[in-house]
């Protein structure tokens, strides 16, 4: 029988340091988390409260005896399980194959995930539906720049930037909740952008997204030409060139918000709840497109980008990369639209 490697996740580091190391599904990566500092000798060791998340590994059982790293009675390895090895290689310790949550914690985590995602998605989806309704009823044109202050473009620029920033209000909450269960920004791969690790791959992801959108445009062009009302073209309007500042701020805010919540938070929580990467990917794409319905049928063009950045995080566990990709993607489109 072919042995199945355990799923990609964080596991105890096989070097025995007491920290954690990321397993990508086939091999160990260089991403490590150092062990927590021991408490002072005089600090009492208290049990965790019933409401705090805890994780338990599967006990040895006949059903997981053949899984690399699964517990096996009478033959403990460095991981507390059987010392299995990949065929043709030196015997090496594998992480415990399955991680499960205690039932009470699992239920709480489900409701936490629902709450965070509703808090993020509800305003965006409602706003998108309002814009779509305006388009269907001929109220327009719908532009990206609100006019909140008449005859004062500089003041209006400042006000609309401040009005957009609350979009990111849920981000600190999501990062705090992740940190409570051990997923700190460092373990999510959230760090200062690196030219080699983030910017160069981001350019490749952008190219793949634009190429896929071009193919979709060719396929859908006959339908759009004969039924142009299906596509809602959200215009920039006539604004001064310095409104590029708005485009950059909005691009940065949107990139951090969407990628932290739909990638970093949602995918990690779904993984902890036992979802497969494929199911998590499809849900992530569905949620991403939900707040782009104001484009009409054009929401389809957001799918390739969502797919590539989601797969990037699933495979590399580096959240900075999709954030940089998203920022460069939106900022480029904003700048071209404003200056041309």
Give an overview in words.
The chain has helices at 103-136, 153-164, 170-180, 195-226, 244-272, 277-290, 303-316, 320-339; strands at residues 9-12, 20-23, 28-33, 55-57, 99-101. With 340 residues, the protein is mainly alpha-helical. The strands form two sheets. It has a three-stranded antiparallel beta sheet with strand order 1-2-3, with no helix packed on it. The chain has a two-stranded antiparallel ribbon with strand order 4-5. The longest helix has 34 residues, at 103-136. It is globular, with a radius of gyration of 24 Å.
Any chance you could write out the topology, listing elements then pairs?
Layout: E1 9-12, E2 20-23, E3 28-33, E4 55-57, E5 99-101, H1 103-136, H2 153-164, H3 170-180, H4 195-226, H5 244-272, H6 277-290, H7 303-316, H8 320-339
Antiparallel strand pairs: 1-2, 2-3, 4-5
Helix pairs in contact: 1-5, 2-5, 3-5, 4-7, 4-8, 5-6, 5-7, 5-8, 6-7, 7-8
Jot down its keywords:
340 residues; mainly alpha; two-stranded antiparallel ribbon; 5 strands; globular
What does this entry show, briefly?
The chain is mainly alpha-helical and 340 residues long.
Largest sheet, order of strands side by side?
1-2-3
Shape, per Cα inertia axes: globular
Q: Report the portion of residues in β strands.
A: 5-15%
How would you spell out the order of helices and strands?
Answer: EEEEEHHHHHHHH
Poorly predicted runs: 49-97
**Largest sheet properties:** 3 strands, antiparallel
Structural class by helix and strand composition? mainly alpha
The counted number of beta strands is 5
- Cα distance spanning the termini: 61 Å
What is the overall pLDDT average? 81
Rg value: 24 Å
Q: What is the helix fraction of residues, given as a range?
A: 40-55%
Continuous helix count: 8
